[in-house]
């Protein structure tokens, strides 16, 4: 097989391992004495809800409402699927989240609250706290997305601006709560996934203020004032670890990046290529991570260390991009463009980087593929790779080469999938 085909097929194997239609059914509980309310938010919400419907006893009461990103919906019968904006929240998401909170408050101890959580839920499940507006949330989210902060720190802020995240959804329920979670964050801690609507929140208002200061995030005055009141204990904190609120709450992570990396590794083994999983929690600036991986790929190619070619260097996690330019492109395109410049056309090294949700940043591609001749082909098209990288325009670079990977919505999300294939060629 051609290297490009190997890379793309390995990505498909990783996606298959994160398919909610396969993952959700084994974790479904027995129906309760009363009724089951299904709620949730995230890019996988629709497929998770469909999986529940397909495997829930027909005679057992079931209804609900989940929120997913625009164009990520599916046809369902018993659970309503609403679509809203991502990554910046909007009024549609707010209205749907308000309806979810209203339904949850109507549950009894004989009922069950089944919560379907996946990446993207922070933006989709948005209700501003009293005193803040949706405009305040939108403005703050836009600035957070540009500042280069890890998702955990971004969510420390968002939890403290939300009336439903940071454990507050679970706190609103009198019924037992089971949250089934598809993780899109490094470490797979429920508190960080979709801003932990059913998980204890170890962060504080002061932590949120520290994030804004550390990354010089400009927010509306009302946001800073709200966080300052919280830090001064003038308003209640989010529910913390050890709170009695969580005695009848279970957060169960059913899909992780590691599972998808292992599936890709098995694919490469089946093609007589040694897989080396470098970690499922890689973070840092995309272009800096690319330099480290480029050095490793050259070491493998030139010296056969620490692995003999052919080898697939596989990793997951979530890099960040501090946006300084005006170009298009998410963190995966940025990683690959930086890697192209670092490798400088080295023979026998191919790469792929894609987001498993099918959306790299806010673009229409999952990511892209890189070949040894990518820079040469770009030069023939009069593309200045370094200039495009400085403008954060990885999308423009790979689009011009016809090397974008476009999957459409995958309706799952276990973070990024990267692989560098070092062959014995060249």
Q: How are the SSEs placed, and which strands pair?
A:
Blueprint (H helix, E strand, L loop, with lengths): L2 H14 L3 H4 L12 E6 L3 H11 L6 E8 L9 E6 L6 H15 L6 E7 L2 H4 L9 H14 L3 H9 L8 H4 L5 E6 L22 H10 L6 H11 L17 E7 L1 H13 L4 E4 L8 H18 L7 E7 L13 H13 L5 E7 L11 E4 L3 H7 L4 H6 L3 H8 L2 E2 L10 E7 L4
Parallel strand pairs: 1-2, 1-4, 2-3, 4-5, 5-6, 7-8
Antiparallel strand pairs: 8-12, 9-10, 9-12, 10-11
Keywords:
426 residues, alpha/beta, glycerate kinase, domain 1, Rossmann fold, 2 domains, 16 helices, globular
Helical run tally: 16
Q: What does the radius of gyration come to?
A: 22 Å
Counted up, domains total 2
CATH architecture of the largest domain: 3-Layer(aba) Sandwich
Q: What structural class do you assign from the helix and strand content?
A: alpha/beta
State the helicity in percent bands: 25-40%
- Molecular shape: globular
Mean pLDDT over all positions: 96
Task: Spell out the helices and strands N to C.
Answer: HHEHEEHEHHHHEHHEHEHEHEEHHHEE
Distance between the termini: 17 Å
Q: For the report, how would you describe the main beta sheet? A: 6 strands, parallel
As residue ranges, the low-confidence spans are none
Tell me the CATH superfamily of the largest domain: Glycerate kinase, MOFRL-like N-terminal domain
Main β-sheet, spatial strand arrangement: 3-2-1-4-5-6
- Please write the CATH class name of the largest domain: Alpha Beta
Tell me what portion of residues adopts beta-strand conformation.
15-25%
The beta-strand count equals 12
- CATH topology descriptor of the largest domain: Rossmann fold
């Amino acid at each position: 097989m051609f290297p490009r085909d190997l890379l793309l097929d390995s990505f498909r194997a990783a996606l298959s391992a994160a398919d909610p239609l396969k993952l959700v059914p084994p974790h479904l509980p027995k129906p309760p004495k009363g009724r089951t309310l299904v709620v949730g938010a995230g890019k996988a919400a629709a497929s998770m809800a469909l999986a529940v419907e397909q495997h829930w006893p027909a005679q057992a009461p079931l209804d609900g409402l989940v929120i997913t990103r625009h164009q990520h919906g599916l046809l369902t019968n018993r659970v309503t699927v609403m679509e809203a904006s991502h990554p910046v929240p909007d009024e549609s998401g707010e209205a749907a989240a308000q309806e979810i909170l209203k339904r949850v408050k109507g549950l009894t101890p004989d009922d069950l609250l089944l919560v379907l959580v996946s990446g993207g839920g922070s933006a989709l499940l948005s209700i501003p706290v009293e005193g803040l507006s949706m405009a305040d949330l939108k403005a703050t989210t836009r600035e957070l997305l540009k500042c280069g902060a890890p998702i955990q720190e971004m969510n420390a802020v968002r939890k403290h601006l939300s009336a439903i995240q940071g454990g507050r959804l679970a706190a609103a329920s009198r019924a037992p709560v089971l949250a089934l979670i598809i993780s899109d964050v490094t470490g797979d801690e429920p508190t960080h996934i979709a801003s932990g609507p059913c998980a204890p929140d170890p962060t504080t208002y002061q932590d949120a203020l520290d994030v804004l200061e550390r990354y010089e995030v400009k927010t509306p005055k009302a946001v800073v004032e709200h966080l300052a009141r919280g830090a001064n204990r003038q308003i209640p904190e989010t529910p913390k670890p050890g709170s009695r609120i969580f005695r009848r709450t279970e957060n169960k992570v059913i899909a992780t990046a590691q599972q998808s990396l292992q599936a890709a590794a098995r694919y490469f083994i089946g093609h007589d290529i040694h897989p080396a999983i470098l970690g499922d929690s890689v973070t840092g600036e995309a272009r800096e991570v690319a330099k480290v991986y480029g050095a490793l790929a050259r070491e493998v190619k030139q010296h056969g260390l620490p692995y003999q070619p052919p080898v697939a260097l596989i990793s997951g996690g979530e890099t960040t991009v501090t946006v300084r330019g005006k170009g298009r492109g998410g963190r995966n395109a940025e990683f690959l463009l930086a890697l192209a410049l670092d490798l400088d056309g080295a023979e026998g090294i191919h790469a792929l980087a894609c987001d498993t949700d099918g959306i790299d940043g806010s673009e229409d591609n999952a990511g892209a593929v890189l070949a040894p001749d990518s820079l040469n082909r770009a030069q023939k098209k009069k593309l200045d790779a370094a200039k495009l990288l400085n403008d954060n325009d990885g999308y423009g670079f790979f689009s011009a080469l016809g090397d974008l990977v476009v999957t459409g919505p995958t309706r799952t999300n276990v973070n990024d999938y990267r692989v560098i294939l070092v062959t014995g060629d060249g």
